[in-house]
Amino acid sequence: MPCAARTLPDAALSARIPATADAVRVELMRIQETFRRHGVPEGLRADLAIVLGEVLNNIVEHAIPRGGEKWIELAVTCAAGRLQVETVDKGAPLPPQLLGGAALPDMGDTPLDLPEGGFGWFIIHALARDMTYERAGGRNHLSFFLQE
Amino acid sequence: MDIDSGVVGGVMVLTLLDPRIDAAGAVAFKEKVRAAIQGFGGRVVLDMERIEFLDSSGLGALVGVMKMLGGGRRLELAACGTVVRKVLTLTRMDSVFVLHATSADATRAPEALVTDGSGQDAA
Fold it and tell me: Rounded to two decimals, what is the model's pTM?
């Protein structure tokens, strides 16, 4: 089973970080190291870093600049063979159309037309399962899980 | 991002020395590479062996670097690890860059590999 070898305890991790790209980088590295020590398989850890990086950087780049307090809370729980992820922030609400799914950006006709952005939500939806979003009390609450 | 650069057999190999191309460093990374390849007209290979993490901002920076090559050359990436490969595959950008198993493979690869337009490495 993924998540951790059966002999290892389940792991949980939570943090409240400043909403900056630098703080996101530091937190992702800390999470990788923690779950590596807990025996979470490399593939699942890679998915976690990829998805959580996109989610957190989206909050930093889009939700926070449009108002709100400059922090993000996150929790990752490793249990029953899956990684459950939750984030909370007080930035602007998430545009609802992003929740249903996302297409790859238009690749254009030549290399010079290739997109340099717009990949983030496509990557998130490709890997995250059971994504739910709630806006309550001026907070965004996003949750999903990852599984091998 | 610290970068070592060298030209091997007419191919510029840029060895990326830090482990991440991410939102926190994507702009600085792009500018470092821009300075390194300025005025160079040959093939450009990024040795990605030390890169442990690439996010969508980093991917955008790689696309930006390829555009610096002017449209006639594709950016070549060598020794991509687990996360890099996954991000490239998910976004289908693995068919846009030319991928090599190692930078040594890249410098041995014939020029034809980068001008056939397929973006695929025969290796």
Answer: 0.91
